[in-house]
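Worked example 2:
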Amino acid sequence: MKNIINEKRINQIIAFLNSLKIQSKRFSEIIKKENALVIKDFNQALTHSSDNKIINYEKLEFFGDAVLRLAASNFIEKKYPQMSVGERSELRAQIVSDEWLTKLGKKINIEKVIIKGPKALGDENSKNTIIGEATEALIGALYKCFNSIQEVNLWLDDIWEEEAEILLKAPYKFKAKSVLQEWCQSKGFDLPVYKIIEVSKKNGDPKRFSCDILIKGLKESSAFGRSHKQAEKNAAKVLIEKFITTGKY
C-alpha cells in the first residue's frame, strides 16, 4: 500500500494550496507548518482510485458534497436573506452542480496535481468527471483542516457572488423548467412533456441521457445530461434560449 508522501509531492501540494489564495491567516499558518495530517488529507483528496484503491478521494468527495451544500446555504443566507426557500434551493442547485465543480476545478488547474493511474490517464471521457470529483474532495479536505466551514466560505463566496449575479439576471439559466412551465401557462398551453431516453450506461457520461421536450405534441428542443434531471434542465434551457432568439419569450 502506497502511503508515504515524498518531499516533492508535499511541495507540490503546498504550492497548489497557496495558489488558491484563501484569505485565512490560520489556513496560511497551517500550510507553512506543513502539518502532516493536513498534507495527508489533501494528498488523499488529490489522488484518484486508479492510482490507489485504498487512499483516494472517494470518501472526501462524499464528505465534500455535504460541506459544499452547507457552505452554499451560508452564502445564500448572507447574500440573499429575502430569497424564498424555493428560490434558494434552485440557486444552490446551480452553484453546487457537477458542471460548476468541473468549471471551478479547471479554473484552479486542479488536474495538474491529481495523481492518476495509467487507466485513468488515458481516459479522456472521464477527465471532466475526475476534475469535478477531486474538486469536491478538496472542499471536504479544507473543512477537515479545522472542522469548520469558515475557510470554505472565505474561498468560495466571491466566486459564488459573481456566478449568482449572472444567474439572477437570467433566471432561466438556473430554473429553466420552472420558467418554461410559466411560459406555457401564460400562453394557455398544456405543460411541456419531457421524454427521456438512456443512450449510455456509463456513469458520469455527459451524454448518458437524452431529453426531448414536446409542446402541443411537437418536439421543440432536445439536449443531453448525466442524469434525467440534468437532461431535462438542459433541454428546457435550450428551448428558452430558442424562444428568446426568435422573439417568442
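The longest strand covers residues 218-225. The chain has a mean pLDDT of 91.
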